[in-house]
């Protein structure tokens, strides 16, 4: 009986190790699957900030205008923009949107000398 | 009695071991097929991403290329700002000399592109004239660009 007990424990250990091994393979496959989607979303976020900078949308300091432009290409996002004057004093922060987890993000510094000197840092999170 | 206990354990062990081996081999072959198709799709996605990067960030060679003189193709006048003249030339080339465009872009698979106006929600141009539904695998990349100072989505897809 003693021998049987020892073998059963070995067997259980073997089963547990096999399950862990299988879980690791399945988990690894899942990780590989999600990576390319994140790259594509990061590229889209980065493109969006470039375009929003070039059209002067980021420098407008107008929250509803910025929101209406981003709404054209995404429905699930979070934006945070910090504005600084020529003395690098942070005089305005704008943030809106709801994405707080499972997001990719892009960050971009920008500037504008149209009406007044503006230096800003914009972050865009996309889900 | 001792030998009998050992035999029972042995039989159970063999059954469990065989079950595990069958499960693992089924899972292994399934995952291998999945990974191979994923690798193939990643290769398509890489082609789509690198080609879209070239088209939306570069102006081509020469910068004022035409449908008769071009060494490399690019649609940009600056980063993510597309030039309408180059878009027209590109469409013309894709419709009339598709294989040359494929060669110049260095693509081994077929491609499709579409430019969509995000302000008016309309397709500006698309080429070649194919139906994406007829392909099993489509790896598409969406880029946000400016065309005529208006927000647009440049979609570039590699199809198999």
The DSSP helix count of chain B reads 3
- Helix segment count of chain A? 2
Q: How many structural domains does the protein architecture of chain B include?
A: 1
Helical content of chain A stands at 40-55%
The geometry of chain A reads as: elongated
How many DSSP-defined strands of chain B?
6
Structural class of chain B: alpha+beta
User: Mind summarizing the main beta sheet of chain A?
Assistant: 4 strands, antiparallel
Number of domains of chain A: 1
SSE order of chain A:
HHEEEE
Strand content of chain B: 15-25%
Task: Supply Rg of chain B.
Answer: 26 Å
How would you state the average pLDDT of chain B, rounded? Answer: 90
Category by helix and strand content of chain A: alpha+beta
Helix-strand string of chain B: HEEHHEEEE
| Low-confidence segments of chain A | none
Strand order of the largest sheet of chain B: 1-2-5-6-3-4
**Uncertain spans of chain B:** none
Strand content of chain A: 25-35%
Question: What shape does the CA trace of chain B take?
Answer: elongated
What does this protein look like?
The complex is a heterodimer of chains A (127) and B (160). By secondary structure, chain A is α+β, with helices and mostly antiparallel strands. Chain A has one domain. Chain A has helices at residues 2-54, 63-70; strands spanning 77-84, 90-97, 104-112, 118-126. Chain A has a 4-stranded antiparallel beta sheet with strand order 2-1-4-3, with helices on one face. In chain A, β3 and β4 form a beta hairpin. The radius of gyration of chain A is 25 Å and the shape is elongated. The mean pLDDT of chain A is 84. With 160 residues, chain B is an alpha+beta fold. Chain B has one domain (46-159). Helix content of chain B is 48%, strand content 24%. Chain B has helices spanning 2-57, 84-96, 98-105; strands spanning 76-78, 81-82, 110-117, 122-127, 138-147, 150-159. Chain B has a 6-stranded mixed beta sheet with strand order 1-2-5-6-3-4. In chain B, β5 (138-147) and β6 (150-159) form a beta hairpin. In chain B, α2 crosses α3. The N and C termini of chain B lie far apart (65 Å). At the A-B interface, α1 of A face α1 and β5 of B.
């Amino acid at each position: 009986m003693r021998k049987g007990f020892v073998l059963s424990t070995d067997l259980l250990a073997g089963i547990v190790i096999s399950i862990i091994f299988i879980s690791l393979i399945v988990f690894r496959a899942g990780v590989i699957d999600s990576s390319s989607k994140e790259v594509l979303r990061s590229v889209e976020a980065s493109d969006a900030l470039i375009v929003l900078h070039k059209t002067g949308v980021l420098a407008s300091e107008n929250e509803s205008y910025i929101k209406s432009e981003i709404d054209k290409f995404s429905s699930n996002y979070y934006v945070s923009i910090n504005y600084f004057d020529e003395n690098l004093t942070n005089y305005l922060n704008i943030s809106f949107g709801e994405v707080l987890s499972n997001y990719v993000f892009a960050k971009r510094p920008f500037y504008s000398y149209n009406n007044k000197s503006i230096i800003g840092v914009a972050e865009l999170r996309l889900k | 009695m001792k030998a009998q206990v050992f035999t029972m354990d042995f039989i159970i062990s063999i059954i469990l071991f065989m079950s595990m081996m069958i499960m693992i081999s089924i899972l292994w072959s399934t995952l291998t097929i999945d990974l191979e198709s994923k690798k193939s799709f990643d290769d398509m996605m890489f082609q789509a991403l690198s080609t879209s990067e070239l088209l939306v960030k570069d102006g081509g060679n020469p910068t004022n290329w035409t449908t008769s003189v071009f060494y490399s193709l690019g649609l940009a006048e600056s980063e993510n700002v597309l030039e309408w003249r180059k878009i027209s030339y590109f469409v013309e080339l894709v419709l009339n000399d598709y294989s040359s465009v494929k060669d110049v872009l260095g693509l081994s698979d077929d491609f499709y592109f579409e430019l969509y106006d995000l302000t008016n929600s309309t397709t500006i141009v698309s080429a070649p004239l194919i139906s994406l539904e007829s392909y099993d695998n489509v790896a598409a990349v969406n880029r946000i660009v400016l065309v005529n100072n208006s927000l647009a989505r440049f979609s570039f897809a590699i199809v198999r």
